[in-house]
Amino acid sequence: VQGTGGSSAVSKCSAAARGYIQDRFLRLLAGRRRRRAPLIHRGYYIRARAVDHCVQDFLLKTQSLPRTQILSLGAGFDSLYFRLKDMGLLHHTVVYEVDFPNVACQKATLIKRMKELSALVGDTGGEGLGAITFSGEDYKLLGVDLSELSELERTLEEAGLNNEIPTLFIAEVVLTYMENTRSDALIQWAAEHFPQACFLVYEQVHPEDPFGRVMQKHFSQLSCALRSLALYPDCEAQRRRFLGRGWTECSVLDMNEFFTCCIPEDEQQRVQTLEPFDEYEEWHLKCSHYFVLAASKGMEPSWTPLLPSVTVPRHSGPVGMAGTVPAAVCARLSGIPGLRRYGHHSVLLKPGVILTTGGFGEENGQHCRMRNFHVLSKHAGCWKAVCVTQNIPDKRWGERLYHTVSCLSDTLALVVGGRTSPSSTGLGVLWLKFPKTCNASDPDEVSVELVSLQPAAEAAALRWRHSTTELTFKGEQYLFVYGGRSALEPVLGDWYFLHTPELSYTAIAVEGPVPESRHSHSACSWEGGVLIAGGLGAAEQPLGSIFLLREFEHGFQWQTIETHPPLVPRYSHTAHVHEGKLLLVGGVWFHASSVPGITVIDLMTGLCLDYVINVEHLEWPLMLHNHSSVFLPNEKELLVIGGGGNCFSFGTHLNPEPVALSLSSILISH
Length: 670
Description:
- By secondary structure, the chain is α+β, with helices and mostly antiparallel strands.
- The chain has 2 domains: 3-297, Rossmann fold (3-Layer(aba) Sandwich), CATH 3.40.50.150; 321-662, Kelch-type beta propeller (Neuraminidase).
- It has 17 helices and 38 strands.
- Helix 3 runs parallel beside helix 14 (280-288) and helix 5 packs across helix 6 (115-121).
- The radius of gyration is 28 Å and the shape is elongated.
């Protein structure tokens, strides 16, 4: 548990060095310095921002009072006191910090050794008295185990804590490491002993969904299990926990809600452009698994720092589920190497033959960008892996992620776009040719070679997280490249018609309401046109709109498809059309109470039904984002290949094997 404090100080320090947070004291307290990944920077930014937002609101609301105090529980190597003092916000406030005795001693030694710190605090020489390791006029550092409540109370009294003045308690990922009976007792003690008090908590939530399971496993491996989660698994349970222990007001936001509602738009944009970033799924999942809570009692006026500055529709209510879809590991596919990957693309080359290309995954026990193509072939009802011979120079393929592959015949496929790193320019267009060996009904070997590039289509292809869909215009075949993002544009809303097979640009008139720019959406061919659903929009907010691009007089027309109930906004899903029904598979949404399963939309009536995926037969968490899926209409079955991602600092989770989702019951009943 003590190790987590040091690790989080290093991460905060790295975020400060990149400009996410303004804090010149972190580097003095963190000790070692390491550069963290952009995803970690965002995670620690939102944590620091939530705590600062509430602390400064408390100081603002109490600025006219003669005296106030802040008690930071499990403070670790946090720099809160030094920042507030430096900003001139502690005129009448004393800050008390409590942590394990050896952590408090280390911090006290650091403060005394660093002129920049000791000059701010001014040592009054009161330390060395029992558990008080450092004592300044407005700063006391105490070494006490928080779970020993009577010892804590005695030491605080000795250090001069005053029960009669407004007090802010801060517990930033602290209570969850304690036994619930002890953390509950601490919450109740604070309410009972302090007539005017506020309590600020930041910690984890939602232990049982796939991301939550990966998160729990990580902390268990660090020997610091998250104990609060079993009793208080969601924001509402945490709210009831405080209201039932003497606190009269309590509001809770998960971090997606906090980012959207409490951070001004210009600040959101500043953070989103600080460094190249392309891990939206893991960022939003991390944010849905942490909350900030503000409880208070006896405060006049009442303390409500989490009242949103903008009204955003809350997605906290459960999504009504119409039924379940069973998930099963495919027989004979378990243990086949090469399919543990994400950001890849899988496509049906012809009935019973699936090609998977690109992405990031696991090869020979190492995590890397995937160079090898993978082919699955179905024979006598069973899938098997087929040996693939690749005659493709590495630099032409470029180890790409988030590209598209369109099969124009059973011997020819077109790869459009993709990226290597998020700062790369995108990777253009490639033809893949499959010589006739692929025509055998049960190929044992498939060879892939590169056909010359088509420079005419390059501009359309310098993007990733886009869609490429086949459509028909005046009896001719086209590919419709839409949306995505590029190194320069975080979200694109443009489109190109590529006439096949020569890939020439064709200008075709398009009328109607233009869909808002998006990436990580889904696109399907339907009745000669294209169905676009969901996606991530300009402000990194999921979209719930569905558009149909259909042939119309001298060109095409955008039409909005209305659904009832409205489609829950989502992105990073896959989609298929079957007999007039749009099937959306997985994805990421902001509804923290559940994860997206299968959504079925009747394109005639607009009826929209959500189904939960029953994963009781899987022994591992099924992450349905950054995956690919192939629909097998005869079997009424979906084959989900790959999926997962870097789960914040909790490690990389890759779905270990393909999963079959049986849709027969829901496609009949619909």
